[in-house]
Amino acid sequence: MTVHASRVRPPALLALLGFVAAVVVVAVVGGLASASAAEQYASFARPSWAPPSWLFGPVWTVLYATIAVSGWLVWRRAGLTAPAHVVYAVQLLLNMAWTPLFFAAGLPGVAFAEIVLLWLSIVATIALFARHSRAAAWLLVPYLGWVTFAAALNYAIWTLG
């Protein structure tokens, strides 16, 4: 049994690294698109409940880790061909698109419409992931919460601006 376990671990570790890499690409694209995000954010008219700009980096770091692990957990149970991973990929692409829309393009209204689609895709991902792994689904709940908050902040900045 030890031999079998050692044959299983490297592919699982490689798959986890693949999920981490996918999430890192999303984070890097967002980072490149928002090189001056902290300065832009500081210049916006914001609601009193808006968090300081330094908070976004640590929050997203934790969330991206949970997003990667969540996808990996479902992969271990269902593989990449599961419809759940199609929706997972869509939410990653929507996640990646928000920052360029909001900061680089300066389109908070379009970014708000896009973040609503992101929110819906996260809900769909949670529902589909729950069929394969409750842990994977629960790992996405803080992400959904943060995107809910981010959508409200996006809307507030858009309407105050």
From TrEMBL:
It is a multi-pass membrane protein. The chain crosses the membrane at residues 53-74, 86-105, 111-130, 137-158. Belongs to the TspO/BZRP family. One of its GO terms (biological process) is tetrapyrrole metabolic process. InterPro entries: TspO/MBR-related_sf (IPR038330), TspO_MBR (IPR004307). It is found in: Membrane. This is TspO/MBR-related protein. GO terms for cellular component: membrane. Keywords: Membrane, Transmembrane, Transmembrane helix. Gene3D superfamilies: TspO/MBR protein. CDD domains: TSPO_MBR (cd15904).
